[in-house]
Design a protein that fits this description.
The protein folds into 3 domains: 129 residues, Trna Endonuclease, Chain: A, domain 1; 80 residues, Arc Repressor Mutant, subunit A, CATH 1.10.10; 121 residues, no CATH class. It has 350 residues and is of the alpha+beta class. Strands 1-2-3-4-5-6-7 form a 7-stranded mixed sheet, with helices on both faces. It has a 5-stranded mixed sheet with strand order 11-12-14-10-13. A two-stranded antiparallel ribbon has the order 8-9. The protein is built from 11 helices and 14 strands.
């Protein structure tokens, strides 16, 4: 191996393991090929050769440790793409491998686990032990509940990076002393870099990559800290015309998608509230139910500094809510929210 950049080293190890376990030969045709959706930065184009011929795959190298990462990749990869998408990872657990197979997403890891499906090619290998070099990476300060609050604020308003830390802390509702270590962690992991060595010149290096990381971490790290409570509504379509701002609350999830896009009929309701909206619960006859279709969570940002649209949460949070669900209509709505609302914001770091 001649190249020791982490992504290239992971792919080279995965291809070597694939050859060892399957007898197939695989080689890299191009590193960082052009093409593909803007939300995915392809790492390579590879060719796998077997008895039935050759098959090319577009490769995204990812440290896949959460289901949400898989859904993010699947949502943005075109179904009619010339080459199937293959995820190359240091290690894929059996649970993630099965989810990949259910989604039809090809993968290969450095242990020799693999799923390849193409005309004349069907490989599924699981259960190989995690190699010593693929031990789970230690999470940094940015991937903690407080860190994710800060990253959320930066993704919603990238220009905050150029402002004093007290502004970031106030927007994210975290202690001032939390901001510096989180920014340092983002720099260390090549998410953020200062321009010309100045604090106020910082920029997000790859907004799409940081956004994907935040989206994957939100449901398992930050959301469990938001004091979720479940209720059941008395009838369908009860959310129509309801203005949550009157109750100090904001729509997330499917209702947010309906408000932002105008076409998704909500089957569930996600609400973020400053305080438990008791009057709202009474007014709309919601009944406590652990399996209910209404979820109320705590607001974790400053809505005055980080406003949404009307009575809706910031689009990045609506997107993350939709990604905690796996229905195709929710994932399609998330993609539309990304294109119409999130992507223009991420690209504007002036």
């Amino acid at each position: 191996m001649q190249n020791f950049e982490p992504e290239r080293l992971t792919l080279e190890r995965a291809l070597e393991a694939m050859t060892r376990e399957t007898g197939l030969t695989a080689k890299v045709l191009r590193w960082e090929p052009k093409g593909g959706p803007d939300q995915l930065r392809l790492d390579a184009l590879i060719e796998v050769a077997g008895a039935q011929g050759k098959q090319r795959f577009a490769v995204e190298v990812k440290n896949v440790d959460r289901f949400e990462i898989l859904h993010h990749l699947r949502t943005f990869w075109p179904r009619d793409a010339r080459e199937p998408l293959l995820v190359a990872a240091p290690y894929i657990t059996m649970q993630l491998a099965e989810r990949c197979r259910e989604m039809g997403m090809c993968f290969a890891d450095t242990a020799g686990n693999a799923y390849l499906r193409a005309p004349g090619l069907h490989i599924y290998i699981v259960g190989k032990r995690r190699p010593a070099h693929a031990t789970p990476a230690e999470e940094g300060r940015a991937v903690t509940p407080a860190g994710l609050r800060i990253v959320f604020a930066l993704l919603c308003q990238p220009h905050l990076l150029k402002t004093p830390y007290r502004n970031i802390a106030a927007t994210a509702r975290v202690a001032l002393g939390t901001v510096g270590p989180v920014i340092k962690d983002l720099e260390t992991r090549r998410h953020v870099t200062p321009e010309a060595g100045t604090t106020t010149g910082r920029r997000i290096l790859d907004p799409d990559r940081l956004f994907a990381e935040w989206t994957a971490a939100f449901p398992t790290i930050l959301k469990p800290k938001l004091n979720a409570r479940k209720f059941r509504a008395p009838c369908p379509n009860w959310t129509e015309g309801v203005d949550l701002k009157l109750y100090g609350a904001y729509w997330g999830g499917e209702v947010a998608a309906n408000r932002l896009l105008g076409h998704l009929q909500p089957a569930t309701a996600t609400i973020y509230a400053e305080n438990m909206p008791t009057q709202f619960i009474v007014d709309h006859r919601l009944k406590a139910d652990v399996d209910g279709d209404v979820e109320i969570l705590d607001v974790f940002w400053d809505p005055q500094r980080l406003p949404g649209i009307r009575d809706v949460v910031p689009p990045a949070l609506a997107y993350a809510d939709l990604f905690t669900r796996t229905e195709g209509r929710d994932l399609e709505a998330a993609k539309m929210i990304y294109e119409q609302y999130i992507r223009p914001t991420l690209n504007d770091q002036a």
